Amino acid sequence: MDKFNTLKGIAAPLPIVNIDTDMIIPKQFLKTIKRTGLGVSLFYEMRYDNDGKLIKDFVLNTSPYDQSKILVAGDNFGCGSSREHAPWSLKDFGIKCVLSTSFADIFYNNCFQNGILPIVVTPEQLDQLMTAASNQTEFHIDLPEQTIKAGNHSFNFEIEEFRKERLLQGLDDIGITLGYQDKISNYEDEKQNQKPWLFKDK
Amino acid sequence: MSNNGPKTLFDKIWSDHLVGQRDDGTSLLYIDRHLVHEVTSPQAFEGLKLSNRKVRRPEATFATADHNVPTINRENISDEQSRIQVETLAKNTKEHNIEYFELTDRRQGIVHIIGPEQGITQPGMTMVCGDSHTSTHGAFGALAFGIGTSEVEHVLATQTIVQKPAKNMRIAVNGKLPFGVTSKDLILYIIGQIGTAGGNGHVIEYAGTSLKPLSMESRMTICNMSIEAGARAGLIAPDQITFDYIKGRPYAPSKDHWEKAIDYWSSLPSDQDAFYDNELIINSDEIDPMVTWGTSPEDVVAVSGFVPDPSSGKTENKQKSIQRSLDYMGLKSGTKITDIKLDKIFIGSCTNGRIEDLRNVASIVKDKKISSHISGMIVPGSGLVKKQAEEEGLSKIFIDAGFEWRDAGCSMCLGMNPDQLKPGERCASTSNRNFEGRQGRGGRTHLMSPELAAASAIKGNISDIRDFI
Ligand code: SF4
């Protein structure tokens, strides 16, 4: 997985609340059996008209936001389905960090699996960051320091230690867990006695 | 979460599945059962292959194809990408010795319908699936939640998942449900009350006297939409109704283990005085038959009500979002809900595609015809639901009334297959999401119970079931 350390760049403002995973990547793009190539379809229905042409005034279709690595979005970003295609499409587009006042649980988790940093900010901070993003102010995200800087705004943010570590080092969860195989086997042996009906295969 | 004090149902299941825990609370949780479908699994199996990893416990995983499959003429899936996904699932499950309910198998259906139907879903289990509505299985007192594809791969390889404990929320609904009010109305009402982010970070335990008499089917409808309230999972304590439902199903505990299983299941309900981070008490009298008017499941209103005015939003953002929804839905504020004219009716999905739902619909549309401008589709949740409905004569009632009667799958719940709304079409749907474009680009979805959808099909407008009977 890609490592995440610091990130600099302008941020795209998307002041819509409850942006759901159907808006991030509509269902017709879930038929792929690959993780890549979804960036062109990100926010498809907001980005393209019925004839498949780019809608000029949608923020990610305008320069310089079409190069954004950061997204500033309204409350409750990523609600809806569990589709990991949502972070895959963000990542494929080039977005590595999303700022909002809250995220849906599964989406939040999925971001970390793909080297994307979702940051929870307060409603007041969001307002200020949204304005900064609209003014094309350069953002500076620093994961080791847990800070966001944009123009004369500077905030700290929270992140769980374990998630931070994994992002910084680009670690793969499965590899880490496989290190605990013995513990998993012990657990299974113990539970097989207590709940034999769950272990017919053992 | 304390180790010795009184525990919630969630706390009990959680602590019984802990393989390990870090100081910050991050836990390695054992997963008892894993459901897999064609859309969110190909990349997980590909990941296993790339890193040369095996499935740790193939028998703990069950697979089916449901999301993108056609509901008619399905011998040949004409959409090439959909066909490849289904074929990929067949190949992957075969390669890894995973039980696969394929399209020609009667047992095929929507993952969240067939888990319970086969007796795979049981109290006290941890269950996951690469699908957010895995929360459905919580109706059995199983801790069940949706996961992303990377996590699907993680569960396949390790039979565990990395998680932090959720917070506990208790929603108690007390009193008999009023006439015409179903469990779908109840959950829509709750989502309207707490909002789509109201349950974020929580597992919601539903309790109270209203739930006690409810069938497993009705309970599943409630837990199913926990995710629309933002919750990680929903839970209902197992009781005799739960045990009776499970008994004798193909994957239920065998006779030898049945008593032991019942003992364990009976120990699961929350202890008195267990701690909840949040509590909400609802009196069943408050609840009417509910309908959504907007593009978020929290946009609910009583069927006897009116389309809201943007100025009713508490914040400027909320006002804007109401306006945006109204524009998308093509609705004027102040319109009477029952004056809204419909084009389509969709009855089905993992929320309301079970036999009880179909029986309720049949009782309303029997010997009637759906309105001439309406096209209606009924999609059973599984091949077995379909078979049973046919044996009970329900399908004949539907067809006589003018509905299309389809094969099992997710269908127009998400419109990944050819079952979709056209731009501007307005649909009464028994599914769970009314997001923009969910049922087809530009399609307008009104969520409601199967009873309301059936009555609306006959009248051609959104209808109050209480005026109907
Ligand atoms: S019926 Fe709808 S909500 Fe349920 S699993 Fe299928 S697509 Fe998801």
Protein model, in words:
The complex is a heterodimer of chains A (202) and B (469). Chain A is of the alpha/beta class. Helix content of chain A is 33%, strand content 17%. Chain A has eight helices and seven strands; from the N terminus they run βααβαβαβαβββααα. The two termini of chain A are 34 Å apart. In chain B, 61% of the residues are buried. The mean pLDDT of chain B is 96. Chains A and B meet through α4, α7 and α8 of A and α2, α3, α5, α9 and α10 of B. Bound molecules: iron/sulfur cluster.
Summary of the model, kept short:
The complex is a heterodimer of chains A (202) and B (469). Chain A has helices at residues 21-24, 44-47, 85-93, 105-112, 123-134, 161-169, 173-178, 181-194; strands at 6-14, 70-73, 97-100, 117-120, 138-142, 147-150, 153-156.
Task: Output mean pLDDT of chain B.
Answer: 96
* Structure class of chain A: alpha/beta
Structural class by secondary-structure content of chain B: alpha/beta
Structure summary, number of beta strands of chain A: 7
Cα(first) to Cα(last) distance of chain B is 49 Å
Record the strand order, biggest sheet of chain A.
4-3-2-1-5-6-7
What's the multimeric state?
Answer: heterodimer
- Largest chain-chain contact? A-B, 57 and 77 residues
Query: Which molecules are bound in this entry?
Result: iron/sulfur cluster
- What does the average pLDDT of chain A come to? 95
Q: Roughly what fraction of the amino acids of chain A lie in strands? A: 15-25%
Number of strands of chain B: 19
DSSP helix fraction of chain A: 25-40%
Work out the helix count of chain B.
Answer: 16
Shape of chain B: globular
Strand order of the largest sheet of chain B: 5-4-3-6-7
Shape annotation of chain A: globular
Unreliable spans of chain A are: none
- The rounded Rg of chain B comes to 21 Å
Give the biggest beta sheet of chain B: 5 strands, parallel
